Amino acid sequence: MPAGYTHYVFGEQVLDQLDENIKKRIMPYIDLYHIGIHGPDILFYYDVYKKNPVKSLGFGMHQLPANSFFKHAKELIKQDATDATLAYTIGFITHFTLDSSLHPEIGVLENTLSMTHSLLESELDRELLVRGGKDPLTANLTTHIHPDYTNAQVIAPFFDLKAEEVDKALHDLLFILKWLVAPTKLKRSFVLSVMKLGGMYEEYKGLLINYEKDEHAANDINHLIEMKDEAVPLAVSLINEYVDHLDDDCLNERFNRNYE
């Protein structure tokens, strides 16, 4: 999940800035919030080695305006006697905010730096890991993701999927991302070979964090981190407004944008 760690860091920054009343509603369902911060990306890894509707849904959602998703989420929240659905939705808002804030710039950098989208996001993860005192080659980036069938039942209606499909997507995500932790040359060579054999090399090679920082992209990565930090107040504002209007159709015009 390129920039998965970046989404986690951003989600924690936003959580820290949220109104205490909202935070209190999230905390009993923090696992759902932490899954929500990864948005539709959790579907990318469902049966990753072959094309399928679940994986396609995850990729396709990024091209669509987000408003229909968050309108539907309000209906689900109204039907939930707990705050589980709300916690997931708030996490999802952080994902949308960060994607829609950074992806346009990343799209420009793909051309100016001749780097793939996933490679740029891996460099972003790498820099944040280093700044956080973690080894980017060995760090486990999924410690905050806890698949649970009960949580899958909460998430499934958001995507019109079965709980079994969401549960499998989350377990597949954990398996693949742990498999991609490849600090040794032997494992890295093996992982890349499997990607080539599976016809996934061009699409997924950027998921591997490089041994060394790409100095050519360093200034731009620093700028992306600044943009991330600047997006925190926007996410907080969108969440506050969304929670204030759970009982009506009001939705911030920002949600008319897609994730790109």
TrEMBL record:
Residues 6-161 form the Phospholipase C/D domain. InterPro entries: PLPC/GPLD1 (IPR029002). It comes from the Bacteria. This is Zinc dependent phospholipase C family protein. The lineage of its organism: Bacteria, Bacillati, Bacillota, Erysipelotrichia, Erysipelotrichales.
